[in-house]
TrEMBL record:
PANTHER family reported in the protein's UniProt record: LEUCINE-SPECIFIC-BINDING PROTEIN, PERIPLASMIC BINDING PROTEIN OF ABC TRANSPORTER FOR NATURAL AMINO ACIDS
Keyword Cell wall biogenesis/degradation listed: no
Entry-linked Pfam families: Peripla_BP_6 (PF13458)
UniProt organism field: Pigmentiphaga daeguensis
NADP listed as a keyword: no
Family label: Belongs to the leucine-binding protein family.
Keyword entries, A-Z: Amino-acid transport, Signal, Transport
Signal peptide: 1-32
UniProt xrefs under InterPro entries: BCAA_transport, Leu-bd, Leu_Ile_Val-bd, Peripla_BP_I
Protein name (Swiss-Prot/TrEMBL): ABC transporter substrate-binding protein
Domain Leucine-binding protein: 34-353
Length: 389
């Protein structure tokens, strides 16, 4: 009988250990692989001023998750695509993300782009969420069970500001806006809501795009003597003209601004014109979850976050929560988990509000989650009214 030498025995042991290690590596569970989450944003197009801060909030959320061990022990890897706010590019970007292994796609570009991405996510059965788009028809134009929206609906924003007006007993109101398609749509929505509430519209003025002054329109508003002015326009240059005329003409009735006045860029271009103006927002800096977010974001990035950063943060955290409850990245299980989301308290929303998709709905922002805030000088100040009240 041939007896193996000690050397040959050691070599055999080494070979066995190597084989076992290779087998273990080959059989390593997906737990060792990163969880890929796709983001479609706009870096160069018209949505850039909004999409970039939302994206920054999502990036911060990923860093925070990874610092705490990731999701289910796996690191989060963000795959970011720029669609330039062009719907014809959005679908291509979505397919690229699906092919790269994205478990979930966050849509942070314009509403038409998000709508186009849905054609891909429905076909590939890839969960998709927009945490910032506010169009009321995003979940109704396509019957897509893989799509959800947590951006506050435009109708919810308007309803909150109308509730504030009713609370202040404004009976005679003026509408002042501009003639962009979205501006006119917003104006019609406010008009319908005010008429339904019984308020009297004593003046309705439009400042055309490209105007150099709003004095003629605001002089008519002054003559009508309204209890309050609803600023329905969504284009910043015309809003600035309206506010400048309001100040120069010495008007004193309250100004109620729509959601566009919540973007901090407004304070830069309308410097010195905003004190006392109220506006509808989804962000209450005094909310405990918002305070923690503000402190952590500022520590990490050196700047104080605002509502748009919070949209991206909440969006990614909602996705992470669904993946955790799904126990992995199986798309069908993640879809079911996201649809089952209830009572998720995020950074955004009024105190006492939460995200959820009860009854099979796919719009998840609490309809009582909006707040009304007031400008104090050029700074966005405290909450003066909450939809949850």
């Amino acid at each position: 009988m041939k007896i193996a030498s000690p050397r040959s025995g050691r070599m055999a042991g080494f070979a066995l250990r190597a084989a076992l290690a290779a087998a273990a590596l080959a059989m390593a569970p997906a737990m060792a692989q990163p969880i890929k989450i796709g983001i479609i944003t706009d870096k160069v197009g018209p949505a850039k001023p909004y999409a970039e801060p939302v994206t920054a909030g999502a990036v911060f959320a990923a860093k925070e998750l990874n610092a705490k061990g990731g999701i289910l022990g796996r690191q989060v890897e963000l795959l970011i695509e720029d669609d330039q706010a062009r719907p014809d590019i959005s679908a291509t970007a979505a397919r690229k993300l699906v092919e790269a292994g994205a478990t979930f796609i966050l849509s942070l570009s314009l509403t038409p782009s998000t709508q186009q991405v849905q054609t891909v996510t429905l076909e590939t059965k890839t969960p998709q969420l927009t945490p910032s788009n506010s169009g009321d028809t995003l979940t109704t134009q396509i019957d897509n069970p893989y799509f959800w929206q947590t951006g506050p609906l435009g109708s919810t924003q308007i309803a909150t500001l109308l509730a504030y007006a009713a609370n202040r007993n404004f009976k005679r109101v003026a509408l002042v806006g501009e003639n962009s398609d979205l501006g006119q749509l917003t104006n019609r929505s406010f008009k319908a809501g005010l008429e339904k509430s019984g308020a009297q519209i004593v003046a309705e003025e439009v400042v055309p795009r490209g105007s150099t002054t709003a004095d003629p329109q605001m002089q008519k508003v002054r003559a009508a003597k309204p209890d309050a002015i609803f600023l329905t326009g969504v284009t910043t240059p015309e809003n600035v003209l309206i506010l400048r005329s309001y100040r120069q003409l010495g008007l004193k009735m309250p100004v109620l601004g729509n959601f566009n006045l919540s973007v901090p860029q407004t304070a830069v271009v309308a410097k010195g014109l905003l004190d006392g103006v109220v506006f509808v927002d989804a962000f209450d800096p005094a909310k405990p979850e918002a305070r923690r977010f503000i402190e952590a974001y500022k520590k990490e990035n050196g700047v104080e976050p605002y509502n748009l950063n919070g949209y991206g943060y909440d969006g990614l955290m909602l996705v992470a929560d669904a993946i955790k409850r799904a126990g992995g990245t199986d798309k069908e299980k993640v879809r079911a988990a996201m649809q089952a989301t209830q009572g998720y308290v995020g950074v955004l929303g009024a105190v006492g509000s939460s995200y959820g998709f009860s009854g099979g709905k796919r719009t998840g922002f609490d309809r009582n989650g909006m707040v009304v805030r007031v400008y104090e000088g050029d700074k966005q100040g405290k909450v003066v009214f909450s939809g949850a009240q």
